[in-house]
Backbone:
């Protein structure tokens, strides 16, 4: 019974995604069966589309920046959570995780209001980055919490006791031990930011990000196969990045010699 | 007394409102094996960490080797620490762990490697250098932690319950090894423990702490035989506590002990001082003796009824109810040849001695 449900669920989940590569290589501009034969035409069209290149560049820039900032914030929060104790710690950490369950549309609209109406700023890639950092940081904290929680806080003290400064104790002991978590956090934040749509749609200025650009293409039925080709590349990229992230997360746990308790994959 | 290596002067430490150390005065001699003993939460770790430089003191003075430690950070103090969790660096090898403190040492690599090898040999881990540190057993980790701290030849080695994570057998073996190691390197050891037996076995001197204060500081024998207060007496070993009443002070103290009668004791038997009036009187179980059939004694004798018997192989522990004594007296007897084990309910005589009484200040 349960098994049947699980299989149905997986089909429901992955069938649409499986359609992406099928139509991406289909030689016909209408998305419908029967298939028309094999082509790589849609992929080569991707290469020549400069508007798309622009969008990809924007997205990559935003995703890299988001990954870096979210991970930096995540490191600070996770380290504070694991090693320091201060009044109201639980409550504060709870609030930090809140964006995880906040609807993105709310984040998008409220940020739009704050940036445009309250602060009177121009929208740009940076407004998207700010919002993406907001939604990626909880993920980053969740991943890094795992990495930091397994650390014995006495280790940094031991390094200091043996003559190192506070910073070099962090660099020599803590950093190598949480590095897998950091890599994993960078990759996941990058992936989330790269294909995020709602916030980007509200907050991009004149330069759309890739998901926003794709959405724009949908209005032209003739462009659909190109979207499929792009989608195929994105799915492949996401899977690869998430796999690498998971690999590093597990390696981190193995290195610290603790049992695996969940994760994203 | 030679100049103390560590000199603490009314050290106070607050965590927010919580008064964790309440005026600690302490002198530790060079080469001493010194223990901080006390119940959980009494501030032993806090005191050790202030000496190591991980915690700032709220007030008071600390000198190590004549040098004022105010504003001297942990990485510049002549102390090294063995942490309760050992804090072994799991991503490094055993040799890298042990050699960690030599990173800033200008000596050539080969010499440092030799120092590491010697340190490993000292703790009985010769040839373990290339192993991954995270794959070691508890006892091996502890040895690595020791070698890592000792390689810097500190003036003081601080150990925070280093044996508490080991099983009983391993713990006893390590106690002996630690004593041997301390004698051979001649470094001052300060050991934190809540295990009174461990402290008695290992230390030259012990400070017993309660709630941020030192209750008594003395060598193991004095501490055991002449505890200065009821809480020290009860914390170290087993002690029968009886109500008493001091009628006279001065040279020789007269005290009425409930159930036992009037006794004359020397002033040394009241290490906490004597005040006329109600007091508590302690007597150790092994200084009391059951008088078996036909045995006679010149010691004083009271009569009682056996209330409970616990047979331990080499020893038998009796609880004997004596008229006038509120709690049954604990008595421990060696099971010598020909000595029977008494049944519950047997009437028996109990011999005791005035010289083994301790008058305990409240
Ligand atoms: N960083 C801290 N912040 C607030 N209170 C603390 C802190 N560290 C210790 N305390 C408190 O100070 C008291 C003494 O703690 P400490 O760790 O020194 O006890 P201990 O004697 O080592 O006990 P144990 O045998 O359990 O290790 C405890 O009540 C503890 O709760
Ligand atoms: Mg402690």
Residues:
């Amino acid at each position: 019974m349960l098994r049947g449900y699980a299989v149905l669920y997986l089909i429901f989940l992955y069938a649409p995604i499986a359609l992406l590569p099928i139509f991406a290589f289909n030689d016909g501009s209408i998305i419908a069966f029967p298939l028309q034969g094999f082509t790589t035409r849609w992929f080569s069209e991707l290469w020549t589309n400069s508007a798309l290149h622009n969008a990809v560049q924007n997205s990559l820039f935003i995703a890299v920046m988001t990954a870096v900032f979210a991970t930096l914030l995540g490191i600070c929060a996770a380290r504070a959570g694991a090693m320091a104790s201060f009044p109201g710690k639980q409550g504060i950490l709870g609030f930090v995780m809140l964006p995880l369950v906040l609807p993105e549309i709310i984040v998008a609209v409220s940020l739009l209001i704050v940036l445009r109406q309250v602060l009177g700023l121009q929208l740009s890639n940076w407004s998207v980055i700010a919002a993406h950092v907001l939604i990626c940081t909880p993920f980053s904290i969740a991943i890094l919490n795992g990495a930091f929680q397994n650390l014995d806080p006495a280790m940094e003290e031991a390094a200091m006791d043996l003559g190192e400064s506070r910073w070099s104790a962090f660099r020599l002991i803590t950093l190598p031990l949480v590095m897998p978590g950091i890599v994993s956090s960078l990759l996941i934040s990058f992936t989330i930011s790269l294909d995020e749509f709602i916030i980007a749609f509200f907050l991009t200025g004149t330069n759309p990000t890739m998901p926003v650009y794709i959405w724009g293409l949908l209005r032209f039925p003739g462009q659909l196969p190109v979207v499929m080709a792009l989608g195929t590349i994105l799915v492949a990229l996401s899977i690869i990045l998430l796999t690498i992230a998971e690999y590093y997360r597990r390696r981190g746990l193995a290195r610290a010699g603790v049992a695996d308790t969940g994760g994203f994959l | 007394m030679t100049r103390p290596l560590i000199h603490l002067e009314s050290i106070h430490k607050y965590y927010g409102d919580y008064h964790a150390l309440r005026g600690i005065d302490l002198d530790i001699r060079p080469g001493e094996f010194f223990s901080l003993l006390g119940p959980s939460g009494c501030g032993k770790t806090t005191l050790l960490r202030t000496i190591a430089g991980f915690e700032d003191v709220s007030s008071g003075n600390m000198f190590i080797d004549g040098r004022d430690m105010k504003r001297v950070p942990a990485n510049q103090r002549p102390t090294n620490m063995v942490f309760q969790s050992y804090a072994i660096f799991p991503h490094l090898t055993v040799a890298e762990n042990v050699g960690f403190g030599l990173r800033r040492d200008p000596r050539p690599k080969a010499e440092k490697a030799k120092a590491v090898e010697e340190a490993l040999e000292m703790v009985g881990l010769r040839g373990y250098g290339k192993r991954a540190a995270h794959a070691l057993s508890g006892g091996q980790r502890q040895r690595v932690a020791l070698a890592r701290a000792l390689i810097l030849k500190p003036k003081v080695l601080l150990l925070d319950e280093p044996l508490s994570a080991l099983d009983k057998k391993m713990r006893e073996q390590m106690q002996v090894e630690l004593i041997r190691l301390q004698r051979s390197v001649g470094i001052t050891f300060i050991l934190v423990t809540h295990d009174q037996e461990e402290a008695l076995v290992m230390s030259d001197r012990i400070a017993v702490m309660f709630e941020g204060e030192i209750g008594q500081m003395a060598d193991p024998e004095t501490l055991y035989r002449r505890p200065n207060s009821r809480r020290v007496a009860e914390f170290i070993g087993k002690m029968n506590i009886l109500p008493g009443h001091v009628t006279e002070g001065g040279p020789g103290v007269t005290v009425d002990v409930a159930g036992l009668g009037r006794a004359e004791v020397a002033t040394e038997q009241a290490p906490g001082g004597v005040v006329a009036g109600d007091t508590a009187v302690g007597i150790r179980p092994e200084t009391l003796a059951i008088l078996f059939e036909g045995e006679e004694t010149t010691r004083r004798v009271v009569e009682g009824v056996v209330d409970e018997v616990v047979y331990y192989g080499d020893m038998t522990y009796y609880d004997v109810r004596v008229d006038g004594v509120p709690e049954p007296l604990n008595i421990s007897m060696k099971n010598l040849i020909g000595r029977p084990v008494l049944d519950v309910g047997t009437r028996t005589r109990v011999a005791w001695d005035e010289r083994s009484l301790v008058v305990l200040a409240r």
User: Anything to note?
Assistant: Residues 168-185 of chain B form the longest helix (18 residues). Chain B touches chain A through 23 residues (CB under 8 Å).
